[in-house]
Amino acid sequence: EEKDIHVASQVWPLDEYNTMLLDNTHPPNWIDPIATQHTKNAYLYDMVVIGAGAGGLVSAASAAGLGARVALIEAHLMGGDCLNVGCVPSKALIHAANLAHTVVRGNTEHLADSGITIDPAAIKVDFGKVMERMRRIRAQISHHDSAQRFTKELGVEVFFGKGRFTSDRTVSVNDTTLTFKRAVVATGGYPSLIPMEGLQELFDKSIAVDQQEREPRPVIVTNETIFNLTSQPKKMVVIGAGVIGMELAQAMQRLGTKVIVTGRSGNVLRKEDEDLAQLVKDQMIKDGVEFRLHVSQFQSIKLTGKILGNGHPEMTMNIAETNDGSISETEITCDAVLVATGRKPNVTGLNLETAGIDYDAKKGLIVNDKLQTTNPRVYGVGDCASEFKFTHAADFTARAVIRNALFFGREKMSALLIPYATYTSPEIASVGLYESDLKERGIAYRIIEKNLEDNDRAICEGNTVGMVRFRVDAKTDKILGASIVGANAGNMIGEVALAMQSGTGLGKLASVIHPYPTISEAIRQAGDVYNKTRLTPTVRSILRGMVKLQR
C-alpha cells in the first residue's frame, strides 16, 4: 500500500518547550473516547473529521459549537503544518532574522544615516537561542489547538490514530468504527523530494529514529524538519524558489548562514508579477543570497566524510546549469540542504476507494464547487482538496463546508476571495487576478500604481522599495486584482480584499481617510491616481468653466 511520507511527528530536541508542545498536540497517555460514555448509538456522529490541521480544527470546532456530535481524528500532531512546521515557527524565525539584519548584517549604513553607530563585530547571533525562542512561542500558542481544549472546552471527541474509511458511512480508528452522517477529510499535505542521486538516502539518514546519536546526521531538511535544528549551518543550498524556499533562504542568510537558492525556471515566486518578485530577489541578493535559477539537472549529492565544527557532515552537490544555450556542471560544497520544491496531498492510505471517493495522488481529492467529494456525505477541506495552500484558505473552506454539510448551504469555493502573502523582506501580498490571468481570460484592464518612493512614511523610515499595484476594469474602477510590495504588505492587503468583497471601486478608495503618515496611505493615493485618469480634456474644460463662474 502506498503511504504518504510524514515526518512532522518527529520533534526535536525534547526540551521543556517541545515537551509542552507534544503534551498539547499529541498527549502521550491519551485515552480515546469509549462506548460506555455514550448511548446505544455509541459511535454515531453528526460529523467525523479526519485531520486536525487548520481546516480540520475549524470544521470540528464550528460543528460542535452548533450542537453537532463531532469526532476528530489525528494521526500526528494537532495544529497541523501551520502550528508545528509552518506559519508559526517560520514567522518566529523570520522575526529574529530581521532583527539581526537591522543591527548586524547589511544595514549599518541605514543605522549610521539615522545617527546610530554600532560595531557589528560586537553583536553575535546565537542560533541556539533563536531556535529556542521559536520553540517557546510555538509551545505557548499550541494550547489553542490542544487536545484538552478541544475536548473539555469545545466538546469535540478526539481520537489519536490513523483514520481509514471502511464504507461510505464509516471510518475506523484504533480498531474502533465510527459511523457518520457527514465527514470531512482535512489531511493536509507534505513536502516532496526531487529526483537526485543520493538525496533520498541522505534524507532517510537525516530522519532515522534508530540512528546512533554519535553518528552525525546529514542536514537534509524540508519545512517539516528545519525547525528541529539546534546548530547553525555554515552553508545551505535551497532547492526551490517558491514561497517556502524564499522566506527561509532570506531568514537563514540574515542569521549568518551562507545561502544559495537553486531552481529551474529562471524566476522566483513565479505566481507573482515578475517585476514585483524581482524587488524581493534584489533585496535578497543585497543580503548576500546567491541565486542559481537555470539548473537543468540536479545530478547528485553525497557526503565528503568531513565533519565541520558545527557538527554537521559536509556534502557536495553536483548540478548542471544552462546559461546562454550552453550547459556547464557545477559542484557546490555545503553542510545543509533545504528541499522546498512543492507539496503533495495526504490522500493515500485512507481507503478512499472503499468510501467511493475519487482522488488524484498529485492534486488531491476531487471535489465540486461546494467542496463535496464523489461521496456526497464526505467533504474535502484545505491542502488536500484545494489549490490554495494557506491556513486562512483552509479556515474559510471549512466554514463553507459546515454550512453546506449541516445546513443545506450553497457556499461555493469559487466565490471565496483569498488573499495571500510572502513574508520576505520586502513582503509581497496579492489578491484577485494577476495580469497573466486577465490576459488569459481576455479581460480588458488597466494598471494603476503608487510607488512607495512617493510615500512620506516610507521615506521617513528609509524603506522605499515597493509599490501598490491595482489591476482594474478597463472602463470602470472595479478592482480585478492587486499586489503590494513593501514592509507589512501582508497587513495592508486586507483593505484591498475588503474593497473587492464589498464591491468598492478604486475611485471610492480615494475618499477613505487614512492616518498620516502611514504606508497604507499608498492605497488611498492609488485611488487618487485612478481618479486623475478620469480627468479628460473635456472634463477639465468643464471644471475650469465652473470655477470661472464663481469668480
Strands, helices and their partners?
Elements: H1 16-25, E1 44-50, H2 54-65, E2 70-74, H3 80-85, H4 87-103, H5 108-113, H6 127-142, H7 147-153, E3 157-160, E4 164-165, E5 170-173, E6 176-185, E7 189-191, H8 199-207, E8 220-221, E9 235-239, H9 243-255, E10 258-262, H10 274-287, E11 290-292, E12 295-307, E13 313-323, E14 326-334, E15 336-339, E16 343-345, E17 359-360, E18 364-365, E19 378-380, H11 391-406, E20 420-422, E21 427-432, H12 435-441, E22 445-451, H13 456-460, E23 467-473, E24 479-486, H14 489-502, H15 506-509, H16 521-533, H17 537-549
Parallel strand pairs: 1-2, 1-6, 2-3, 6-19, 8-15, 9-10, 9-15, 10-11
Antiparallel strand pairs: 4-5, 5-6, 7-16, 12-13, 13-14, 17-18, 20-21, 21-24, 22-23, 23-24
Helix pairs in contact: 1-6, 2-11, 4-6, 4-9
Annotation, overall tally of beta strands: 24
Helix content: 25-40%
Task: Give the termini distance in whole angstroms.
Answer: 86 Å
Mean pLDDT: 93
Total DSSP helices = 17
Shape: globular
Please summarize the sheet with the most strands. 7 strands, mixed
Taking Cα atoms only, what radius of gyration do you get, to the nearest Å?
26 Å
Poorly predicted runs are: 1-5, 35-39
Strand residue content:
15-25%
